[in-house]
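Dear support,

Our group has been running a series of protein-ligand predictions, and this particular one with zinc ion is the one our PI (initials K.S.) wants archived with full inputs and outputs. We had some confusion internally about which version of the output was final, so please treat the block below as the authoritative record. The input we submitted was:
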Amino acid sequence: MPAVQLGFAEQPEDGPLSFSIGDFPDKIGGRPFWLNPRHAAKAEDVTCGVCEKTMALLLQFYTPEDEPEAYHRVLYLFCCRNGACHRTRWKGCFKAFRSQLPEFNPYYNPSEGEALCAVKARLCQLCGLDGSKQCARCKNAPYCSRDHQILDWTQGPHKEICAASASGASATPTRKTPTVLFPEFELVSEEEQGHATSAANDEGSDHEDEEEPAGSALTPELEKIKIDEADAHEDIEETEVDVDKAFLRFQKRILKEPEQVVRYARVSYADGPHPEPLWVSDNGKMAQSDAPPCPHCSGPRVFEFQVMPQLLNVLEINHYTADALDWGTVAVYSCIANCQPSDGRAYMEEFVWRQMFSEHGMGDSAKAALARDAALKKVTAETSTAVENSTSAEESSVKNDAPTSGGSSPSAA
Ligand SMILES: [Zn+2]
Ligand SMILES: [Zn+2]
Ligand SMILES: [Zn+2]
Ligand SMILES: [Zn+2]
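Confirmed final output from the archive:
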């Protein structure tokens, strides 16, 4: 099984991101880059099922496959920016779409990767979705929805621009375009180390513990979690103490790369085995077999990627506000066959599953952020202690397990 690709958020180096078919960036937020230049997704496709407002692009991947129908392939994940909607009914708050083109298509030259046709969809000037609606007065401002038109009129610059264009003058609007998008970052990938054969995280994969790279700076912390995990297992069996084994495994795995915002693990061949997401809790998991089949070809959908809680920090979501956006992880499952329905549609909807850290689902990301910070501080402290002790470390590795301040061990009591 191939290694998991970890995605990290980076500020674009040369200003706002751009794209061509030869250089199609994976990204977070901002306006969507449409693989199919003639057909942008419509606001109706990405309307929040709770507040009925237009969702924003959370991230998109360019993931070409070795199949004629999916020579070019992009996956889009949208979500409502209002955390209150997610608390009310999260299933109405996400939409994932697959878009693909064969090698020979009307839009891109196969050898050069250049645009063959200049025809482009009109795009909403606020959000970049299909902009087939427009300002009735100037007929010069495309929008995806009445919602965004009103927003641009009442809070944005369009009222001033529209008035100026009616009188033939050029406008210097005083108001800025309202923010309806997530901030934009480039998504840069890197292979996860130390888990080359163990992308699965099902209950039977405990032996992955034996694949830890030796000599990592995080080893003392990881060893400790490993011990906790073993203890926890006994506790569960003997006293049914409430310990979340999946959470411990999750913490341990992401500690090595705590800045990861995405885990990508698609296996495109049908006979698998297919990876599972790295679940954040024992509660609210979904079995691969429970992912509903593709509505177009009736074939199975398999896990493709998951969004990590660290993305909330990158997007500067304030965990402590009541309506903060929140998740433990968001997993996307896609049609294994990369089917292209005969109606020629440009967007095939895929399946999204959200999991929280705890059953009640409150303050989850805050809890995780705190746990993560605590764990990182601990690792830093242990690493610096290890450095201080490095002269004697060779004589006795046992010393590294002693309490950092040299006092008597609390566990001896
Ligand atoms: Zn909403
Ligand atoms: Zn719009
Ligand atoms: Zn206008
Ligand atoms: Zn399908």
